[in-house]
TrEMBL record:
Shikimate binds at S15, M16, S17, T62, N87, D102, Y221, Q249. Residues 7-89 form the Shikimate dehydrogenase substrate binding N-terminal domain. Its EC number is 1.1.1.25. Gene3D superfamilies: Leucine Dehydrogenase, chain A, domain 1, NAD(P)-binding Rossmann-like Domain. Keywords: Amino-acid biosynthesis, Aromatic amino acid biosynthesis, NADP, Oxidoreductase. This is Shikimate dehydrogenase (NADP(+)). Residues 117-193 form the Quinate/shikimate 5-dehydrogenase/glutamyl-tRNA reductase domain. Involved in the biosynthesis of the chorismate, which leads to the biosynthesis of aromatic amino acids. Catalyzes the reversible NADPH linked reduction of 3-dehydroshikimate (DHSA) to yield shikimate (SA). It holds the Pfam family Shikimate_DH. Pathway: Metabolic intermediate biosynthesis; chorismate biosynthesis; chorismate from D-erythrose 4-phosphate and phosphoenolpyruvate: step 4/7.
Amino acid sequence: MKQLYGVIGNPIGHSMSPDIHNAALKDLGLDGHYHAFQVENDNLKDAVKGIKALGMIGINVTVPHKVAIMEHLDHIDESAKVLGAVNTVRTEGDMLVGYNTDGEGFVKSLRKILDKPVQDLSILMIGAGGAARAIFTTIVRENPKRFDICNRTLEKAEQLIQSSPSFQNKQVLTIKEAEENLERYDVIIHTTSIGMYPDIDAVPISLQRAANRAIVCDIVYNPIRTALLKQAEQKGLRTLDGVGMFVEQAALSFQLWTGQEPDIDKMRAIVEAKLGGKEC
Ligand code: NAP
């Protein structure tokens, strides 16, 4: 019988998850289908019941349900508990278990271009929302040399940085303070929605003072080459776009459901072809 997978969110119309998961299922010869479901907040509880009732293998969860879904699940894996959000649900016997693959997905994509261990990195992150929490929490487990956060709302950055009390080498900065001290950092990670379509000329920070060794990462992937990444390229800096995180977190979800490893390069090619270097 064909196995059913999916993603729930609102809005969900532009999701590229069905494209990459259906391609991976086909590629690996698995008899399954992955569908995007638009779910209103008021229907979330019933939608979760539907996962069990329909015998689905699992789902992805996206905005705005990543936190709200937790109370409707039977068990939360440590990966999601520490982040306070779920992006993947797997049916395990008669239980629905919540996981989070966002932070690990980002770190896997970052590792591909790093030339030194995380322990030797001074990192600046711009933003303190859900994706930032996943990235911060995952990276500080590896004890980087330093991890600072700047954000429009300083209280949110403060809350996030205090959420890992055992990690000491950290500081909250205003965007201006971060700009003035940018030469400190080996890796600059942008996690806000600034620069996302349709506001494609917006940049969250000036890279004028970035060190030549810096790697500039943007988790926004629509457009793939954001204005921030273009600014980094003009300075001759190495860059990491948001497609890497998107396909790596998807691949980790796919592995949780099927036990098989999808072809990351093919997933990436599908996203690139769909965005076509343009915005949608
Ligand atoms: P979120 O929880 O709503 O957090 C939004 C963040 O952006 C906050 O730090 C917020 O600052 C900041 N922000 C929003 N508008 C701003 C503005 N006009 N000026 C300055 N700061 C602004 O969102 P999220 O779920 O973390 O997602 C953030 C972005 O990451 C989105 O573009 C999303 O598409 C992308 N993302 C990509 C992936 C991937 O796989 N590549 C995965 C997840 C998310 P305040 O605290 O001041 O409000």
